[in-house]
User: Fold these one by one.
Assistant:
Number 1:
Amino acid sequence: MSSLPVSTGKQLGLVIDLDTCVGCQACATSCKEWNAQGEGGPLTDTDPQGADVSGPWFNRIHGYEVKREGRSDSHIVNFPRSCLHCAEPACVTVCPTGASYKRAEDGIVLVNPDTCIGCKLCSWACPYGAREYDYMQGVMKKCTLCVDRIYNTNLEPEDQVPACVKACPTGARHFGDLGDEKSAVSQLVKERGGFDLFPEMGYKPTNKYLPLRARRESHAAGVQPLAKPDGSVMEKLFAWADQLLRSSTTTALVNPQDNSGKLEG
Amino acid sequence: MTPVTAEPRLNLSPKTWDEVKATTCYMCACRCGIKVHLKDGKVVYIDGNRDHPVNKGIICGKGAAGIKQHYSPARLSKPLLRVGERGTGEFKEIEWDEALGLATGWLSEVRNRDPKKLAFFTGRDQSQGLTGWWASQFGTPNYAAHGGFCSVNMAAAGLYTYGGSFWEFGEPDWKHTKYFLLFGVAEDHASNPLKAGLGKLKERGAKIVSINPVKTGYSAIADEWIGIAPGTDGLFVGALIHCLLGAQKIDGEYLSRYTNAPWLVIENKGRADDGLILRNASGTALVWDASAGGTKVSGTFGTNPSLLGRFILSDGRKLVTSFTLIAERFASNDYAPETVSKTCGVASETIHRIAAELAHTAFTDTVELDIPWTDYLGRRHEKTLGRPVAMHAMRGISAHSNGFHTCRTIHVLQIMLGTIDVPGGTRYKPPFPKSIPPNVKPAGKMGHVKPNTPLPGPPLGFVTGPEDLLVDEQGKPLRIDKAYSWDAPLAAHGMMHMVINNAAEGDPYTIDVLLMYMANMSWNSAMNVPDTLKALTAKREDGEYVIPKIIYSDAYASEMVHYADLILPDTTYLERWDCISMLDRPISEADGPADAIRQPVVEPDREVRPFQTVLIELGHRLGLPGLTRPDGTARYPGGYANYIVNHERAPGLGPLAGFRGKDGTAAGRGAVNHNQLKAYVENGGYWFQELADNMKYYRHVNWDYLDWATFFGFLPRPEPIIHQIYSETLQKFRLAAQGHGAVLPPPEHRVRVATYFDPIPFWYPPFEGEMVSGSEFPLHAITQRPMAMYHSWGSQNTWLRQIIGRNWLYVHKARAAKLNIEDGDWVDVASHHNTIKVQVKLVEGQNEDTVWTWNAIGKRKGTWGLSTDSPESQKGFLVNHLISDLLPEREGGYRFSNSDPITGQAAWYDLKVRVTKSANQKEQSAPQFKSLKKIGST
């Protein structure tokens, strides 16, 4: 059994907007390529050109067609899934060697590959399926929240965010300190009603998901229905055009001769 | 519990790269700026370039997987010469010198005898500025890229209507739009800017309406999804116009000032001037001045033209304003929401409501920017008025045989609302707007093609009447693909999808050499794959192939490699110089022009060469004048990099607009700068010039912009670009079909041309659906591009194929229940042409009468470096096999191509099918083609 820090200074994590995610996979491959070459790498794929290609991914995007309460039609939700860096991570407490740990400084949950024995208890303990076993190296791997980017002074300050956040084309992924009520991500969670996955299980995930916004499929306030066209469409149009001719105004002239001269025959 | 685990010491600032180079992505057509991180000369990481105008730091699923494309086992490594029969995979490796010698021999023989016997067609070519010019120098009119089977309906409809286009030539004003209509767009051109823009709209609370038979991707996040029946968008949009006309919610001032709505059309049925615009002696259009009770020159200050009305000229001719004709068409009951509802599969109340929302947003919820600007008549506008309705449309509109008119209908809607290039509307990206149409005509007319002689102009351009067609005295096509013939008069991008089968049929003639680049024409880029393979392998009586020589350049072991005779292996996008030029498809932003380069970030580790450099070398070996100095030496020694810097299309105008002039400070027009590429590299691989605020909107009629654009070479003269909602060009073709003029269509074409060359947009049912039985083939079948893949390139990519390694046929649950089909069943899908067997998934988020799949994932066994048991070949499939390249016979026995009758755009999405549970539930798709022998670096 491994234990947890009593408290963490920060609670770094992600806020993922399910209302904006189009399921493009940019976060998935950006994650894969950063971590394949970074501190967590390599993330080797087996049978790369064959029938059963597979490999570790720290971030996978699933598409679900769901029914929402009170609606007859379906909704397609794109759901990116990665480690939620829980405040009470069972994957850490279950680890027999102390390889899984939660950083005291920022709450990031990591695996120490030097002490991981590949027993996979942590992946059984994680209800979110966030851990990925690397069969080539025989160790468990997972999202590091790009711990090797977010403090990396070799990167431009604005690039010191997880690779998935930098990549996201629709801006559906946000990174910050969810332990700080005033942080932009905490504010976003508050405004949009961000929620935990499986809160009833008590792991207190740090990452939050933003729910679907209300869809506007009916008249917005102030939109007046148009008069339904009847048999006199052309007649009314002519009246409108006449009115237009009478009401036309002329705006100030700058230099009409110059240009209109070119146009005249 | 044990004490807190000691945390291992981590290196939080690892530097896993030793160098970063900025270049341009090529994982799709979007052309984002990327930063390639290198370690010990190897590519280790690629991310988006924050400074780049296209993507501003973001990257997509494909772009971030570029590393696996570069190190793909499917890469070719040396020139190959076919030694067995085509399709057997029997090749031998040869040296480059031998390869270039062979190609030169084949090509020079053709050029000496009859240059049109070379057909040069390129696929996902991003160097069309070079390849088109090369073809012209060679002297063959038979050149095009893949636009004819991709997006020409969008490009042509836009360029013939408002001087711009959706496609890549314009974009929504993401910053100010409040209402966004998205028609038929899946992952497509400009994929990252679209995603970024949708994200911005979401943040601002702008309403997004997606009109698409399928509710994935962008449609999934839209506020409103309209699951329209494929090919009926024109009817839906026509109904919106109907409602707006009925409520007089139209921007009359915009129409009067900036469009040809008030221009006078001659009504003289049966005569040669019927439907033409009334013009003065110098050709300027006339309008009706009600206050004077007579005609006046259009576009003059102080004239207040009538928008509606019929008038009689002093010589007795009857006149009508063009807007009257447009209004009469759409006011008709044919376009009433109640009439179109059933065909479109959209409730009439929904159409009424969306029309009201459009009207509200455009006319009540306006935007006013504090930017004074001056229009072409010198009228100063103290503010820039915006009508914040934006639209974007792509392949769902384009890939139908009614796509040109449908796209024009959308433009008419935009223009009636006064939304083109206004704040919140759909904006041009420089070099657009261009003259309507752009002032370049296709070369290749009778007498243009001569041995050892360049064409007098470019092979592709824009016709403005029958006299510009490339036809002989009998009206027969002069081009191998029949572009610019009576089959497809406005085929502005050529018709690559017709080349192979036409050449094999000898219709209109046979060819001697087919040169292709990056075009998988024996597989996912071909309609009717089985017959295309027959065409590629057909032999004459003397044992020679009907298409005797095929030269192909590609970086990968695609299906097409197997059917070529000489393979010129290309580099990857990370190994070469390139330019993303405004002479080709620009990457400009609405706020200003931009272009970019690719630089070799790594050296090739094998014997491959950039195709562009090879083409320049071949041009010199052939002695093409543009590529050879009078003394016989190469004009661009070293290849493409030299050409990019030193080539001038007109004095001071070259492939790259930035860092021109001897000291590199000129933009747009300027002398050659020998350090230009260095300047691009230092600037992050791109050049961008933001326009002054007063030149950012209303550019078609913006005095300052028009002047500036003329200096930059975008326009021949600083003249306003008046939107042509009534197309006189189309009417000229129609008149020819009615027997007027010097160039007349052959009799078998007359009804067709007279019908479809309507100067006013209209809706007609897609051809295939009209020609096959609706009860026999009740379902529409379409494809979409998955977001993580681009054409056939993606599924060799180890990472991307883990995301999607095979495809399914998606069927609506309700429809499946009626057909007794369950999730996971294997089904037979039959068209009038062929049958395939595929596996289904049942969903609800799609039009009930439509089935669909992801395109280009199915692979032929033995290709792309994949194992022969890969899911791509075992379970993946193409619907291409179901699509005929020709329509069923029409009256007189002629089989027209399965294309739009105006532009020749391939009608991929017209497909109609029948789906039944297969008697054979074996877990394998059908047809399975014979496995090809593996070619590649491993």
Number 2:
Amino acid sequence: MNRLSLLFLGICGALLVGCGKQSVESKGRLFAASFQTMNNPFFVELNDGIKQVVESHGDRLVTLDAQFNSLKQKGDVADVLQQQPAAVFLNPVNWEGVKGTLIEAKRQNVPVIVVDAPVNDRDLVLCQVASDNVEAGRLACEALAKIKPDAKVVILHLSVNKACIDRVDGFKAEMAKHPGLKLLDVQEAKGTTEGARPVMRDLLGRFPDINAVFPINDPSALGCISAIESAGRAGQVTVVTVDGSQEALRTILAGKLHSSSAQFPRQIGKVAAEKAYDHLAGKPVEKDIKVPVKLITRENAAEFLKGP
Amino acid sequence: MKTLRQLLPLLIAIVLLVAFFAFFVPGGRFLTVSNLLDLTQQISINAILAFGMTLAILIGGIDLSVGAVVALAGTVAVAVLPHAGWAGAAVAGMGTAAAFGLVNGTCAAKTRMPPFIITLATMLVARGTALRFNEGRPLPVPDSETVFLNLGNARLFGVVPVPALIMLGAFALTALLLHRTAFGQHLYAIGGNREAARYVGIPLARRETTVYVLCSLLAGLAGLIHSSQLYSAEPAAGQGFELNAIAAVVVGGTSFTGGIGTMPGTLIGAVIIGILDKGLNQAGVHFSLQYIIKGLVILGAVWLDVRRRK
């Protein structure tokens, strides 16, 4: 062995021993959280919410990143199940594919709490905690009706996603209460800024009388705004959306976006963790838990804005 | 004896890793029978892909399409499952995989296109074809399909996972093929020196095509197990599986330039990567640090191997 290889082995050894130690020394009960991805601030905040509650009880949380790989998620959860955790928080990559994992957890009597995205096999899980997406859509429509009771609206949808389906359902249900509102069209726009921009431009060309749009999330709202501006219709088309991201808040303050119904991922995490502790204390837990959303407009945007 | 000596450093690495995690996983929960049986189940898909990848890399090629073929074969199988039963589903899935292998192999053998680019292209075609099913959403396997579901989830005598048995079967077949037949000798010859192999009369095109078909067939088999384990076919699944398989192959001592490598080495490579994944999860290591450690271990293993051969 030359010096270089010794150095290399030394670094590997130190890394392994360092992180091994960290875990052996920690005490308390083990909880695990498995997310479809950690490459999204939404899930990082959600995880922080869980962690805060778990650590305040003197317990510890292991977070696993499935990298959008269902098989990795299955293996990850199987690994922690071997260690008999007190509970598992699960954000499934594939709502069909988690079935095997849920069956295994049930067999070992480990409660599973689903966060954010729903699963098909509801009776295999303790409870599901997610934003109240129907309410988020309803709030958006209400905000629109308040300022433009006779608006002509288009919806930019992402119809493969359950959360977005709920938002549109909520929006349409509220529309029924405002006979002045008229729905011109519903189009698919991929839920992204790049996806929404061309779709909105086409809609602006097709319907010269459009004066409102409901894109189902913040990124597509930003795409809509860009399309509206480049069509020279800035200020004429009201945009209402859902998410409450920091970027959207700044856009609201700039007067380009009317409202965004904010989700609170940290709150989702906290509620999920509290339900786990309720269950462990023997208290009953409801199956479907909706975390409230909040309408953000120009009046209150500043208080939700973090940093500069 | 020679093979054993070659594999010795890898076996020592396994012992060291197991000893390490036995010590650092809280509560002594690493070195239990049920945990190790879980391990055999978890590595089965990667190992099966790695066996095929070993053949491709041995002849100086590569197959980047295996991850997408896993998704496509699984999706096709589950799509025909309600109509054709488990046997029909298996034939459809494996047949689709074989077709891709035939295209890869024919292009590699008959044209001067590099296998890296050929299989990069067929990866995209296979992925896109898989996403045509059910608008890219997962297709559930009906609960009544017990034979199909047993493929990935059952345990023989309630103990040994069926996917692990399939993996051992695939290992036995590929190892015999590579180490005990003239076909295997030809692959070493092609990987060692392509032109020389041609001059001694080895049917290059036929051998090469066969290798890619075998590689795809193994990917198809992995795809069947994958959709069985997940109770559904997932058109978006399998992304990055090819890279994990390549990692197992090179950790197992196969030379990336071809001509050198063994099937037992690849099996051990897959075991090492599986132990690492499992142990780091169970020791509670932060996921960001897991990637770093895994990267360093792959780098270190390959480097030690290269040094030893010098």
